[in-house]
Amino acid sequence: MAPQMIFVNLPVKDLATSRAFYEKLGYTINPQFSDDSTACVVISDTIFVMLLTEEKFGTFTAPGKRVADASAATQVLLTLNAESREKADELADRALEVGGSPAKEPMDMGFMYGRSFADPDGHHWEVFWMDVAAQG
Q1: The model's pTM
Q2: What DSSP state is assigned to residue 132?
Q3: N or C: which end of the chain has fewer CB within 10 A?
Q4: Range list of H helices, the chain
Q5: b/e map 5-27, b = 16+ CB within 10 Å
């Protein structure tokens, strides 16, 4: 059985700015699923972020529902795991360097560590590391 994939769809105000942000984080864009209103960001073999202009995003929502402004409200927390505390710091620091903004203070519980940032549109991302052996 093939692994299940996830496609996270995010509305963006400026596709070029958002696309550049994710490319500067080290992710690639799949041109097969990208055009002038959409960019498919490849996070891993099974995780993809579909950046859609707000207009394009609106064509996929239920009739009568407005597109949320992620800079004003949090609808979802997007969370990625990291190989280590250092890798969590690397991704969060890089995001802040290339146009992201702080979302909240780092979280350190010893066996679990996390950082967060908001992308240029305000979408809240969490990056965490957890020592699975400590949970045993």
Answers
A1: 0.91
A2: G
A3: N
A4: 15-24, 54-58, 85-97
A5: eeeeebbbeebeebbbbbeebeb
